[in-house]
Specification:
alpha/beta; Rossmann fold; five-stranded parallel β-sheet; three-stranded antiparallel β-sheet; globular; nucleotide-binding; EC 2.7.4.25; Cytidylate kinase; Cytidylate_kin; transferase
């Protein structure tokens, strides 16, 4: 949508491997909007938990770490970054150890409360600046931004999601068999969808977009159409020369 900017909030929910991060960043970039990866914030806290060698079953210890941790997330879709206590941990939070532990950490209610408050602050800052923001995660439309002008639930066939995860991991120098990745996808889906606090699910007012048969351009075409339909696209402001 050349010549348009986003106003308001697009909430992007869904499981891993649906292309959520890629299309969220590109949607935000194309609409001159900010971008927030809430999952990276949970991964940063998880990294802190692992560095402290805390027991993943000890909710109180995890909560103390989350309370002390200074997690900051950049909102530039072209150069998103995540910092833990001032240190760029963008590479570390995508490692295998964090990936396997993040669901357990994210399931702790106090951790979610701490990070949701920060996420809502970041959204409020964008709206106060009259800038749109695309927010991705697993509980955005229901918990983080319940008043979002557009709520999307991305989905895809589990096998397709596993193959996408494998391609992404290989591109980043991580190697795992397709069977291992499929098992991890199933494990995370089960964990995230059955947790007591903010489970992963499609809420009633979210629009489901199945990406199984769509490439990135196809998904973006659908999303841009929905942005226009909801009246969230405005004429791009001219900058002074």
């Amino acid at each position: 949508m050349e010549g348009a900017e986003l106003r308001g909030v697009v909430a992007m929910d869904g499981p891993s491997g649906t292309g959520k991060s890629t299309v969220s960043r590109r949607l935000a970039g194309g609409l001159r909007a900010r971008y927030l990866d809430t999952g990276a914030m949970y991964r940063a806290v998880t990294l802190g938990v692992l560095q402290a060698e805390a027991d993943l079953a000890d909710a109180e210890a995890i909560t103390r770490i989350a309370e002390r941790a200074v997690v900051s997330a950049g909102t530039d879709p072209e150069r998103p970054e995540i910092r833990l206590d001032g240190v760029d941990v963008g590479v570390e939070v995508r490692g295998e150890a964090v990936t396997k532990a993040v669901s357990a950490v994210a399931a702790v209610p106090a951790v979610r409360a701490i990070l949701v408050a920060r996420q809502q602050q970041i959204i409020a800052e964008a709206l106060e600046a009259e800038v749109g923001i695309v927010v991705e995660g697993r509980d955005i439309g229901e918990v983080v931004a319940p008043d979002a002008g557009l709520k999307i639930y991305l989905t895809a066939d589990a096998g397709v999601r596993a193959r996408r995860r494998r391609a992404q991991d290989s591109a980043q120098g991580r190697d795992a068999s397709i069977d291992e990745i499929q098992a991890d996808v199933r494990r995370r889906d089960e964990f995230d969808s059955t947790r007591a606090t903010s489970p992963l699910r499609r809420i009633a007012d979210a629009i489901e977009v199945d990406t199984t048969e769509l490439d990135v351009a196809g998904v973006l075409a659908v999303l841009n159409g929905l942005v226009i339909e909801r009246g969230l696209a405005v004429a791009r402001r001219r900058t002074a020369r």
